[in-house]
Design a protein that fits this description.
With about 400 residues, this protein is of the alpha+beta class. It has a single domain, classed as FAD/NAD(P)-binding domain (3-Layer(bba) Sandwich), CATH 3.50.50. The chain is built from 12 helices and 19 strands. A hairpin with a 3-residue loop joins strand 5 and strand 6. It starts with a strand and ends in a 16-residue tail after the last helix.
Length: about 400
């Protein structure tokens, strides 16, 4: 039976194009099925969204030929300062200071605006002879058989491939149509996301303050600008999101503090509900899930996109190695290797993120004292700091070749 591509990828955000490029680097073809028009994906204006890319994610983008197109727009995160805090009172005196000089690999990561990364990925996809884009297009049905995966688009088009990959988010249609259940819970929190300009330079320092309602991250962008990820209870976040820009900034300033001088909102504001949602299976015969389709975690770790890119790197390596050995890349045993490889890492990060949020998102005076003391202890132990830094940089665990900066 004629195949339209080796891999059918549902979802054209960031992970889908990255997977197509990784697979193409080893000779596998892909069709990306994207519900949004390409013109919408290529929005040129700054809208406030940005990503904290770990060191290993940067390595991967270098191998895929993406990093050179965005390097000049990426802000290195040189230091990270983590503290407990109370709105209007500033950070607690005991905190953890992660200095990039303490690890030999360099900056733990870079901040990169969504618009630059998205455009670079789409340009690379367009230039590849092994990748086809169907956009706007939606999947109406899917079918898995012994020899292929098949999707029917809403316009009646039928596409066949050896593997179907869901890169279609926390409410993955690919997962639902495959009967894959999800576990997790609602945090009853929402993340308010925006960007601000400020009077003084940030010097490449990222700040994470744990407030009683949830964490506040201040992440450096190019120039005197920072990305904000501000967690509040669902009800309070909805109230703040509905405010005028003036009133929104009046709420943010006491939490932010005055260490960077005067602040001004730049770009748009967003509000996202926060929950933990993990698929009970990451793969079946001829089907795999990547990124939020497999696992959606709390924003506080800043690891959502990095987790997705790690999925991409592992899945691409598993598929390409299988193809070189002459195996059927859609075979259940092949895709089980992907699920097993990613399962342990995902479970560990999911559990630790969930625990940290529960421990820090409260105003219990006993827990607050313990938290502050614990941060002080970690700051006094260089070995512990280096371990945390290497974890944040993505330098731990069983890394696929792309995350080591090596071609697949």
């Amino acid at each position: 039976m004629k195949m339209d591509a080796d891999i059918l990828i549902v979802g054209g955000g960031l992970n889908g194009p990255a997977l197509a490029l990784a697979a193409a680097s080893g000779g596998l073809s892909s069709v990306i099925i994207d519900a949004l028009p390409l013109a919408t994906r290529r929005k040129p204006a700054f809208d406030g969204r940005a990503y904290a890319l770990s060191l290993t994610s940067v390595r991967m983008l270098e191998v895929l030929g993406i990093w050179g197109a965005v390097r000049e727009e990426a802000q290195p995160m040189l230091d990270i300062k983590v503290s407990d805090g109370v709105p209007g009172a500033g950070a607690a005196p005991l905190h953890v200071h992660f200095d990039h000089h303490e690890i030999t690999e360099g900056p733990m990561g870079h901040m990169l605006e969504d618009r630059y990364l998205r455009r670079a990925l789409l340009s690379a996809v367009k230039a590849s002879k092994l990748i086809t884009q169907r956009a706007p297009a939606t999947v109406a049905a899917q079918e898995i058989s012994a020899g292929h995966a098949e999707v029917s688009l809403s316009d009646g088009t039928v596409l066949r491939g050896r593997v179907l990959v869901g890169c279609d988010g926390r409410c993955s249609g690919v997962a639902m149509r495959a009967g894959i259940a999800r576990t997790g819970h609602d945090y009853h929190q929402s993340g308010l996301v925006c960007a601000v300009s400020h009077e003084r330079p940030h010097n490449g320092v990222a700040y994470q303050q744990f407030m009683p309602s949830g964490p506040l991250a201040i992440l450096p962008l190019m120039g005197n600008r920072s990305a904000i990820v501000w967690t509040e209870s669902t009800a309070r976040a909805a109230e703040i999101a509905a405010m005028s820009d003036h009133d929104f900034m009046a709420e943010l300033r006491p939490r932010f503090g005055d260490f960077l001088g005067d602040l001004a909102l730049v770009g748009k504001r967003f509000c996202y509900p926060l929950n933990l949602t993990v698929a009970t299976e990451f793969a079946q015969s001829r089907l795999a899930l990547v990124g939020d389709a497999a696992h959606g975690i709390h924003y506080l770790a800043g690891q959502g996109l990095n987790l997705g890119l790690r999925d991409v790197a592992v899945l691409a390596e598993v598929l390409l190695d299988a193809a070189r050995r002459g195996e059927d890349i859609g075979n259940a045993l092949v895709l089980r290797r992907y699920a097993q490889w990613r399962g342990v890492d995902t479970a560990a990060l999911t559990a630790s993120t969930d625990l940290i949020n529960k421990l820090f998102s409260n105003d219990n005076p006993i827990l607050r004292a313990a938290r502050v003391a614990g941060l002080g202890v970690v700051n006094a132990l260089p070995a512990a700091r280096r371990d945390f830094m290497r974890e944040a940089a993505g330098l731990t665990g069983d890394m696929p070749r792309l995350l080591k900066g090596l071609p697949i």
